[in-house]
Every structure is written in structure tokens, then in C-alpha cells.
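Would you kindly consider the sequence and fold I have copied below?
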Amino acid sequence: MILKSNGEYVATHVEFACSTFKQALGLMFRKDIPENYALVFVMKKCRKVSLHMLFVNFAIGVIFLDEDKRVVKLSELRPWTGVCSSDTKVKYIIETNKGIEKAANLNVGDVLSFENKC
């Protein structure tokens, strides 16, 4: 489960992408993802990252976090053609259904909590 600091949930169904292979695969080739789902990428060290939507058939929301799990950037990506960069060094990237970041009222500077399962 991913929670905001006030205890409100962002996602209840959480999967972790710990290996380089799982991170490269991401959400590619899936038809959809469950409601309240999040795929958490855990970087070995903080770094700038870029994401693409090649072979992803649905729009997603992306939450970039620093090593303190503080939101540093929020993005929404379109299927197949979306691309974005973290613009700064990050430790975690969370990919969710489009709109979850808005529904959870997330803002840059918010701190999230979740158990790192990597």
C-alpha cells in the first residue's frame, strides 16, 4: 500500500520493479492495470531517468520521488507516444492509472510512505 503522510491511500495494489529487466519491461505489453494499482521502480542509486510509452496501450500517471520519498514531479503519459524525464535525480518512480495522482490530490513536496520490497 502507498500512503500519503496524512494516511490517505494512493494505491492499494502495489508491485515492485527491482531488477533491470523488470524496470525495462515496466507496463509494456499489458492490456490494462487494476484500479488502485502502482508499479514502483526502485533505482539502485538516485539518478535522472527518462520514460517512454512504447508498447503501453493505456495512459498512465507517473510520480517521481527522491530518496526521502518526497514527490519531485508528477506527469501523465499518453499510450504509445508519451515520453518524459524526471528532470532531477530520483530514487523511486511510481506508475499508476492516469488520474490517480489527481484523485489522491498529490502535489510536489508531498511525502509518500510504502515498504520497499526490493
